[in-house]
Specification:
Blueprint (H helix, E strand, L loop, with lengths): L2 H6 L8 H7 L7 H5 L8 H9 L2 H8 L6 H13 L9 H13 L2 H6 L10 H9 L1 H4 L9 H9 L1 H4 L5 H5 L2 H8 L5 H15 L3 H5 L4 H6 L5 H8 L3 E4 L2 E6 L2 H5 L1 H4 L24 E8 L2 E14 L17 H12 L2 E6 L3 E2 L4 H22 L2 E4 L13 E9 L7 E4 L4 E4 L6 E9 H4 L2 H8 L4
Parallel strand pairs: 5-7
Antiparallel strand pairs: 1-2, 2-3, 3-4, 4-5, 4-6, 4-8, 8-11, 9-10
């Protein structure tokens, strides 16, 4: 603690012997922080908090005037511990947030008024509280964190609407742009998706009965299907990664990180957009400090080391190597349940941060692949992110093109659009395959050597 802070702001009557020792380890308060310390004196616990948080949290602390010191400290520590205070709040929004946090903590707002909202973050909650008078009438109708994002992003446009159900009808504007010039069959498909989303039953239409088995043409155990349908969330540092199964964020994948060929407005392959709602596809999003910075499509499909058509004719080897030949032939006959990660899209982050994002994505998908008893295979575009070690090797692989309810689908890693005539075929490509798949002995040898 610097001398100026000690002399001007600290109430020395709050010090004990332990505090005096801790003073030596505290960071000095910056001049910028001191300028917002408008009260006459502060306790040691308050000064210690100010020394460890950004200035925004100190401003919010002063908006909690009227609460007991311990309650103020508890509220700020909860928010600072999750680093969820947006840096772009106006003074008016900060004051409003303070008023709401005097009533109850963020965690209580999350568990009570927002307890029905799935996958909503602390930062989204803080943003909603900062404009609560404007959004409170919409809150009963929102169901997901992405609904909250949609509400916050569109607040100015929605200010005259009575409830979120009415607001959700605005999604029709997206569909109008998407369906401009479309055939009646495409309009009917859009209607089948839009109505369940508004009714809160989108999950039922996406995962209807045995759609997943029909798309992949593979009988999948029920427990594996349930794992696929269940979303997984991972939080690392300030990053938030999730799988998206709701209508609006998927319809906007061609716009969310910049214009792409899947743009609902005028993308070159926008007619393929509805295939993203197939049961075997999910969209991965990652946000950093509340801003989307990454997305990619992940597909559950199958594949093999040959085209799987007609009778397989393996090569015959001399008796000396017959055992190995039979093992290799059996391996080539085999189909593998495949979790395939399509090409990545980034926006506004450095190359180092891109590598960190991919590390997080692979960490999540490896866990999910293990649960699904599937094989994780990556688009060849990830080779620049995998320079360390030999976990993935570039190799030829025949990827199965699953059936699509849309009839046309866009497959980044297989040359673009695939229509119904290609469904059910195995398309050859070069992908990043796990080393253990190419050389099954590797894992066994590593265990014997005590490496894994």
């Amino acid at each position: 603690m610097d001398q100026d802070t000690y002399e001007r702001f600290l109430n020395i009557n709050t010090l004990n012997s332990k505090n005096i020792k801790e003073c030596a380890r505290l960071y000095a308060l910056s001049d910028e922080k001191k300028q917002v310390l408008t009260w006459e004196q502060y306790t040691f616990e308050e000064i210690r908090l100010f020394a460890t948080v950004d200035i925004g949290y100190i401003k919010l602390y002063h908006c909690l005037a009227g609460l007991k010191i311990d309650d103020r400290l508890r509220v700020i520590r909860e928010i600072a511990g999750r680093n969820c205070l947006p840096k772009d709040l106006s003074e008016e929004q900060m004051d409003k947030l303070g008023i709401m946090l005097k009533r109850k903590s963020v965690s209580r707002w999350l568990s009570e008024e927002l307890g029905h909202v799935e996958q909503i973050s602390y930062e989204q909650t803080v943003r909603l509280l900062s404009v609560w008078d404007e959004v409170c009438r919409f809150i009963p109708g929102i169901q997901t964190g992405h609904h909250a994002d949609f509400l916050l992003y569109s607040l100015k446009e929605l200010h005259n609407l009575p409830d979120f159900r009415t607001a959700m009808e605005r999604m029709l504007e997206i569909f109008r742009a998407f369906l401009s010039g479309a055939l009646e069959t495409e309009k009917e498909k859009a209607r089948w998706l839009c109505i369940p989303e508004i009714a809160g039953r989108f999950h039922e239409v996406k995962y209807h009965k045995n759609d997943l088995e029909q798309e992949i043409a593979l009988q999948i155990p029920e427990d594996v299907q349930q794992l696929w349908m269940k979303n997984m969330e991972m939080k690392k540092k300030q990053m938030r990664l999730w799988e998206e199964d709701h209508l609006l964020p998927i319809m906007q994948i061609g716009e969310a990180l910049g214009h792409t060929c899947l743009s609902y407005r005028d993308g070159g392959y926008k007619r393929c957009l509805l295939s993203c709602f197939d049961t075997n596809k999910k969209v991965l999003y990652l946000s950093l400090d509340g801003t989307l910075v990454f997305r990619a499509i992940v597909r559950l499909t199958k594949g093999a080391f040959h085209r799987m058509q007609g009778e397989y004719r393996g090569l015959e080897f001399a008796d000396l190597t017959r055992e190995e030949a039979e093992a290799n032939a059996e391996n080539k006959r085999k189909e593998y349940l495949t979790l395939f990660l399509e090409c990545p899209y980034f926006k506004g982050i450095s190359e180092d941060k891109e590598k960190e994002v991919i590390r997080l994505v692979l960490e999540m998908l490896k866990k999910k692949t293990k649960q699904l008893q599937a094989t994780l295979i990556l688009s060849d575009t990830y080779h620049k992110f995998l320079v360390e070690g030999k976990q993935f090797i570039r190799a030829k692989y025949y990827m199965y093109i699953s059936a699509s309810k849309n009839g046309e689908q866009y497959l980044d890693s297989l040359g673009g659009m695939a229509d119904a005539s290609r469904e059910g075929s195995y398309e050859k490509g070069y992908f990043l395959l796990p080393e253990s798949l190419i050389n099954p002995k590797t894992e066994k040898e590593k265990r014997q050597e005590g490496i894994v």
